[in-house]
C-alpha cells in the first residue's frame, strides 16, 4: 500500500490524497461503507459501485463468528467470498468484543469473550487477530485494541492505552511473520487510543509512530464525548502523526462530523450511520436529514433529493418510498440504504473536489448552510 | 387489449400468443410476479425488467387499504406510483378478503370485512371494486368474486357461483359506465368459479362467456384440491372458453403446475411461490428446488444454477448465499427472490419457445426429468 498526498487546502488542514492497494486506488478523503457480515446490508457489490464506493469495511468479530475466517479464506478471501474485487479494510474486532459480546475478560494475553450469537467462548489475542485478518485478506487491516468507554477514569485509560501499545507491537510482530502467507500484500495500521486525555493520546500516538505502521487510525472517539473534546483530541493526535501517511477516524460520523474532521486533516472514515439510519427511514439530503416515515411525505411526488442521481432518486417519489417503509416492504430499507450510502460516499467526493480546487472552507460553509436548514426540524429524532 | 393466437403446439393444447396492452405487448404463456403492495417484495422495477418480467400483478385489497386507491390515482396510477411503465394486472381483492381479513359478511350487495391491519370495517361491492381498479389503472382488471374454500359443499358452491355470476354482470355494467374515466383503456376479465363441481364450472363458464369479457380466468383452484381434480376441471372449463381470448389460471403454482396447465391451454399465471419461497431460501434450479439453508451448501463455491444468468448466479456462490440467509442478511431474500422470479419468468419463456417450435411435449419431458431428480430430496419441506 502506498499513499500519495496530492494537494492541501490553503484555508484548512484538509488534504486530497490517493491510497494505492493491490485491489485498486482510493482517492481520499474517502467514506467506507460498513459491510459487517460480508455485505453492506441490503446492497450488492454492483449497488456499491454505482454509489461510487471505492473501499468497504468488514467486521472481523462478525466474520470470525460467522461464517468463520477459515471458510472465507478457502472461498477466496473476503474479496472472493462476497465478490467485491475492490479494496477492503477489516477492523480488529476489538470494538465489537467490547460493545456486543458478553462476559469479556481482558488480560495481557488478550480478551476472552462470549459470542453474542450462541454464547460460545473465544479468545482474541493480538496474534490471533492478525491470523484471522490474514485469512480474511483485506487490503488494510487493524490490530487488536481496547476501545475504552466514555467517560473513562484516567488510571484505567492510562493502563489500557499502555496495554494497547504492547498489543500493537505484538500485532506488528505477528503481522511480519505472516507476511507472504496471504493472497496479496496487506497493510497494517496503528490505532491511537488514550480516551479523552491529551497526554495519553500524545504518548500513545508517538509510541505508535515509532513502531512505523502503514497508516494511523484514531479510535475511541465519536462514542459520546462532546464534539469540542473530539475536535481538540483530533488536532492534538494528528500533530503527532506523519503527514505522508493516511489517517483514519474510526466510526465517525454524521455529515457535519466528517466535514469537521476532513478540515482537521483526516483522510478515511467509516460509519454505520448511513446504512442503519437508511433502514429506519432517516434519509440524508442536501437540505438535511428527513424522516421519510413522516406524514408530510404521504403525497409528495418529488424525489428524496432533487440533486441526487442515485437509483432511488431517479426512480421513486417520496410518497412511494414512504409507502414502502409504512408497509414494512424491504424495498424501502434497500432504497434508503442505497441513497444514504450514495450521499455519504458522494459527500467525500464533494470534499475531494473542493480541496483539489483549494476552496474547502467556502464549500463547507455553503454545504452546511443548506444542510442545516431542515435539520432543525429534528423529525428524525421523533 | 387485443389477443393474437400465434401458434399452437401439435402435441398438446399449449398455445403461443400475444396480448397487446396500452403499456406494451406480452407474449404468452406468461408468468406474472406478484407485487402485492405496489412492489414485488425486495425488488425494483429495474430488477423485474432484468428478470424478463413483462407484466406484474397488484393486489387490490392491499392497495385499497394502504396507501389507498385514490392516493395512487393522484400519484399517476399504479404505473406512475411504483414507476412500472409496463403492463399491470390487478386482482379484485376477493381472494384476500376471504383469506386475510376478519369477520367478513357476504351478502348479495357485496362483502363487508375488517382490515387485517387495523380492524377498520369496509364494504367491497362489485361496483366499488371496479371504481378502485379504475383508479389503480391496471391494464387488465378482475371483477369481485367469491373464492370458495376447498372442500366446499355442493349447495354452498352452487349458490356462491350463481352470486359470483350476478356480481360479474354488475361489474361489467359499472366497468362500462366508468370507461374513459381512467388514464388509458382497461380490459376486464371474467373469473370462472364453481368449486370442484363439474356442472357448476361449466354453467359458470358458459354464463361468463355470454357476458363477453376481454379474457377469462379460472379462480378457486390450486387451493388444496388433488392435482388430478384440478387438471380435469381445467380441461372442462377451457372447453367452454373461446380460443381467441387469453386464459388465466389464478394463483398457480409450482413449475410442474405451470407446465401441466400450459399443456392444457392456459396462457397466464401468477403466484407468490417464487417470491415467498425466495425469501425463505427455497430456490428453484433446473435440477429442482433446493433449500439454500442446508448445511451441504456451506462451502459450495458453485452458483445456484450453472445455467442461470440472473445477477445472483452470475455473482455469488451458494456458500455466500447460504451465509446471507444464515445470518439474516436482507441481501439473501433479495437475491433469492430475484433468482426465483428469473426462474419462473424464464420458465414461461422456455415454454413459449418450445411451443413456437412445435416441441412442447418433448421439452416438458426433458425439463421435468432433470427438474425432478433433486426434488426428491425434499429438503425444502424439512
Features:
382 residues, 15 helices, globular, TIM Barrel, 2 domains, eight-stranded parallel sheet, homodimer, alpha/beta, three-stranded antiparallel sheet, 16 strands
Q: Care to describe what's here?
A:
The structure is a homodimer of 382-residue chains. Chain A has 382 residues and is an alpha/beta fold. In chain A, 44% of the residues lie in helices and 18% in strands. In chain A, a hairpin with a 4-residue loop joins β7 and β8. The longest helix of chain A is centred in the last third of the chain and has 26 residues, at 331-356.
How confident is the prediction overall: mean pLDDT of chain A?
95
Binned, the helix content of chain A reads 40-55%
Counting helices, strands and paired strands, the structural category of chain A is: alpha/beta
Which outline of chain A best applies? globular
Query: CATH topology of the largest domain in chain A, what is it called?
Result: TIM Barrel
The CATH homologous superfamily of the largest domain in chain A is named: Queuine tRNA-ribosyltransferase-like
Give me the CATH architecture of the largest domain in chain A, please.
Answer: Alpha-Beta Barrel
Low-pLDDT parts of chain A are: none
